[in-house]
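Exercise 3.2. Students should predict the tertiary structure of the chain below and write it as structure tokens, then compare their answer with the key that follows.

Predict this chain's 3D structure.
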Amino acid sequence: MREAGAVFERFGYHEPMQRRRGERLWGGRATRGTIGVLGAIALLGMGFSCSPAADPSGEGGAGGGLETGGAAPGPGGGGASTSGGSGAGAEPATGATGGTLTGGADPGESSGGAQSGAGGAPSPRDCENDSPALAVKLLETKRVSELGTLFSNQEDSVGPRSWQARYGKAPEIVPVADGDGFAVLLQDQSSGAAAHVVHLAPSDGEYAVDAVYEVESLGRIMGLALDEKGNYFVATGVDEDDEVDATYPPNDIPRPDVVRLVKFDRSGCVLGETDVDMARREADPEAEIIVNPMVAGSSRLAYGAGHLLLVHSHNTEPDENIGGTRHQKAIATHINAETGAVTRASTMWVSHSFDQRALFDGTGFVELHLGDAYPRTITVGRYPATGRGVTRDLFHIKGPEGDNNTFTRLGGIAQVGHPEFDYLVLFATERSRGFEGDGEIRGNAGSGPRALADRSGGKSARGTAAHRSCRRWRDRALGRVDHERHDEPL
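Answer key:
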């Protein structure tokens, strides 16, 4: 099944955003320049990062500490712009309010997702909340073909040679495991008014649809998650790319119905909702507002231990120094899944962040970003329920800071061992060192050489010496690759 985050979207803003004065940019050291790879896999074992650099100069920069650079506009308009939170490691807000989620899962000590399994088909029942802001309906149909347009050649015509292929894409098909079954959130390409959640369960050695829900939408889907009781969480956001300019929306004023989170049970009853932009400001008076969610990027929603992480791209307030152009960056929100309150409104700074991934590792949330400037790396951050987060730069990307072409695409991130130490990261990048010239090695005509490779490190839940070693990358049509080791846990 195709994951929608592998496709790319149009946007219309250019410059990367540097950190604000006084804000800290977190990141590891830059490694020496080497070749990149297609399908490179980075393993963090005992917190170290086996990561080759792809800096063509062979010197590498100070990861996460860049102070200069700009985005080059692309043909046909539009580079990215970035906005950001208050830097990595921000303390979570306390006494947060603003959500209306009720009922649902009892948070577990190390629960990372739904454990309910795929039971029988649910039955409609009377719901206590009979007038939610976003309505949910349990449908009688079990046919996916009756759920609107799931793919459109007119709406999804961007290919690898286009400028838009440098950036992530708003999700369109989001699968989530549910015991021995799974649920899928689907974007209707013919209408943004509603999305659909389809649940599938094992049936005679195959999978069969046993429940279909229609979920009212703000325009675009942003993520799907399930808790231990089988309750669903759906995030949705507006498509306001055509409306956003130097004067709209107004600065520093949170708005309703920009991003919403709705929680409902297997009968289709809404258990609660969170108006995310409004709840962020209620939790933290300094929280940045959300503008143009998923512009030049993507979105992910993850659940674990009674909390949710929603991470996505968006635009900042206009920058008067560049004629009111808005930057683009990542923004993350932690939400209490029981109450709907925002518990953290700021995590790591990545600007631009052209693609995002998220997971819960049993004790904390992990974010993965593709950055082109501050920092120009594939970077990962881990944030526990309380206390500061930690970030690491995994792969330093060739080319100047702020060049929208990163020559790189994110695959995914998976936990493969100890929740604080072992993660596997998949990405694709070019092997070549060059980057000059449109149409030369820019992912268009005449791309640089690419190869598939992986790398491995020791894995042990007890933190043995194997954690602190990093083997050479396996020579699978890759050649010799240098590496660097980090001995600090995430």
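Discussion points: Residues 276-283 form the longest helix (8 residues). The chain has one helix and 21 strands.
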